[in-house]
Protein: Phosphogluconate dehydratase
Organism: Phyllobacterium zundukense
Amino acid sequence: MTVSQRVKSITHRICEQSKPTRDVYLDHLREAASRKPKRSALACANLAHGFAACSPSDKAALAGDVIANLGIITSYNDMLSAHQPFETYPQLIKAAAKEAGGVAQVAGGVPAMCDGVTQGQPGMELSLFSRDVIAMATAIGLSHDMFDAAVYLGVCDKIVPGLLIGALTFGHLPAVFIPAGPMTTGLPNDEKAKTRQLYAEGKVGREELLESESKSYHGPGTCTFYGTANSNQMLMEIMGLHMPGSSFINPGTPLREALTREAAKRALAITALGNEYTPVGEMIDERSIVNGVVGLHATGGSTNHTMHLVAMAAAAGIKLTWQDISDLSDVVPLLARVYPNGLADVNHFHAAGGMGYIIRELLDGGLLHEDVKTVWGGAEGLRAYTIEPKLGENGTVVREPVAAESADKKVLSTCKQPFQVTGGLKMLKGNLGTAVIKTSAVKADRHIIEAPAIVFDSQAALQDAFKAGKLDRDFVAIVRFQGPRANGMPELHKLTPALGVLQDRGHMVALVTDGRMSGASGKVPAAIHVTPEALDGGIIGKIRDGDVVRLDAEIGTLDVLEDPDVLAGRPTPEVDISHNSYGMGRELFAAFRNVVGKADNGASVFG
Ligand SMILES: O=C(O)C(=O)C[C@H](O)[C@H](O)COP(=O)(O)O
Ligand code: SF4
């Protein structure tokens, strides 16, 4: 099935707007690729340092230029349940590399923040910046220039985007992303959310809350809601950076190990030393980026990717805008209902058909570019990913065509009968600036909210007002000075229980902020990433209690219904944000706050 005219024209527009930067990027990539084999550019001393700690056989292999060396960039730590399984991956990858006649070395580690641990805490103000730190740390690992390809071990929110930005900066190297998979299903996410709302109302205590949370988050693997981490897995698969079928296989299973070994061997097979050289910077082109955006809309993915995808695309010289994302939303239907967009979790999603089903449905619907390069290779392009992976007899991966029908039509639907005719993410425009909203998790009767503003300069202030019983009414919560320059643009997901309680009591409530929400945020209409931010003089900083604000996700508008001259004439209030500049490491990120770009440009520090 060829891709639809509308998707084709948006892709063409992205190619045109990217041409100047993409051409420069590809020139730099080809210059880097011309210096091959990689280690021949190193002097003997460099090389000796690079393999000093290797085994004699690896030293002999690396002294020459015909054995491929695989760099491993790992984000292992015990803080993220999703990254804890990576502890054993380097040994697995090294053994697989040896079986394939190559060598593998850990090139470096990158930091990995858990947004669940830092949610609502000061540490969250480092979270968005950690994406770019991860990209820089990736570059530091690869800068040893000892490698012919690299594998990237990462799963969660900022880590995969940071790893891909780093990988694309070394675009001459082939790249394979290796996930660890979701934890098995625990307490359903909607029951977890209900207990949170009861706690917010003072109806249950900390003991019940902790028991509920611990039953939901109970073991190794990614949390099972469809937030940014699992949106990352979807993106890596639909952009051809995973081995087909890798995304949602649970950790610690034989199939997971087989996929990891297979990924290591595949990375060694696509270096410049072989016949299938697949540099990641050429493989990821405008069509792959469009495929990622299409997948995001079709699955109701995380709002954070309205920034991360923009930043990842920029790392390959590709200019992706919120207008592109919004226009694709108009032509891509919602095919999946996974929490917070439904009751199912990612394990149910996988069992219903998973990524193989989604990719097949979107390809047959003419909504994905099929003729793209992938790490899997071959002439099939993305069609090779319309599969279900299984464990073969001798511990290898076998792949069967994905079932024709969804195994659970409440979780996975079809392009002909989608859950929503448009995608899960919408851009909003108006005199408040531009913003994004995730509509896939908001009931239709909450897509338009018009109510008086109540203004807060922190999420704690809103929570305090809720606890004091001051919010039992229709209102639009304006939470400002949460933008990238103000305090690193934290997620304000802790507001969800209080706003959810008020919405359940029948009030028409909405959130408008220059901050972020979690990909797991959902049912309360939230216009987020408002640009320009308050600290940049944006109108969001000039709104006062009582101003009427209208959020319309149907037509995509966000306005303050006050006299424009009066609004423009208001000074931006002096808000003391000095407390955001110290404590929990924030002292070290002043330079990031000073140079960070705008949300609609990916809130990147790389310009
Ligand atoms: O998906 C994202 O963008 C996230 O940031 C997920 C975080 O990890 C949240 O913190 C969700 O977890 P809870 O706070 O337990 O609801
Ligand atoms: S999905 Fe979010 S909460 Fe879960 S481990 Fe990853 S970062 Fe932490």
Observations:
- The first helix runs from residue 5 to 34.
- The mean pLDDT is 95.
